[in-house]
Amino acid sequence: MNFQKFPKIDLHCHLDGSLRAQTVLDIIKKNKIQSNLNLKNIKKQLTVPLNCSSLEEYLKSFNLPIAVMQTKEDLERVSFELMEDASIENIKYIEIRFAPQQHKKEGLTTKEIIQSVLSGMKKAEKLYDIKGNYILSCMRHLSAESAMKIIEEGKIFLGNGVVAVDLCGEELPGFCHKFIQPMKKAKDYGYRITIHAGETGIGENVTDAINLLGAERIGHGISISNNKKAYNLVKEKQVTLEICPTSNIQTKAIKNYKKHPIYNFYNDEILVTLNTDNRTVSNTSMSEEYLQIKKAFNLKKEEYRHIYLNSVEAAFISENEKQRLKKYLK
Ligand SMILES: [Zn+2]
User: Fold this and answer.
1) pLDDT per residue over 128-182, tens digit each?
2) Annotated catalytic residue, options 199, 216, 242, 288
3) 8-327 belongs to CATH 3.40.718.10
4) Residue 30 confidence (pLDDT)
5) What spacing in Å lies between the alpha carbon of 235 and ligand 1's midpoint?
6) 199 among known catalytic residues
7) Distance between CA atoms of 127 and 111, rounded to whole angstroms?
């Protein structure tokens, strides 16, 4: 199977983890951020190896991307380029997430930040056969007030390129409790909700994300394999898991592709989708993720189609848009 040619959907892709190295170099030079970097050492700083030591080390690769995403022009550019890269490998729909809180170092407002990435996305939608939406991620090491602020300031973009909120960053046990109020508000405003949870071993966070925060989808969620209560809840409530295999290996959540629980989940009728997480940090693509899962589990064409359809159903889009995505399979 040539996955490059197959239509694909990515529901879990971070903007700051998916920058082109050349673009990072261009912006560093243009904005005079650091003078001692060249393409080779930038690539090294942006990407982690499969034998990365932990989620903490993985998260360090975001320092440089964040540094070059501080102006309207640069935010628009990286958003456009991610859409372009995705369309080149035949991704038909993508939900890109990013944390506006990270892009205020040069004084941009939340509104300007969101406007800029949306502008890049819309430019690409006009040029290529791809559609996208943004998910506003709130950093969970920051306060509930900070998350609330993003939710308040982002709501004017609902229905116009912003569809959901997320919580991301380092995962601590019980993190959901802090964000009950902001997520309730988000739901009232009409945001859809997906939460990073159960990424590196804490299955209980998945239960909390669903029960306390109303998560409709879970980013990763792989730790449910060690937590029966969380597992049963995900299954019973038909919560979709956004699975990102390469990232899971790099953060040491999973030993190798063959040990990944995705196929067991799939066979047990848990709703799984396949996603990239971070195209640059993980040096991956949707085609590569499918390829690795095919190699590990001898994925059949029918199974690829099933996973694609899971993504269609879980996407935060209208019924009409879902129909458009289903047509690509025919
Ligand atoms: Zn993620």
Assistant:
1) 999 999 999 999 999 999 999 999 999 999 999 999 999 999 999 999 999 999 9
2) 199
3) no
4) 94
5) 21
6) yes
7) 25
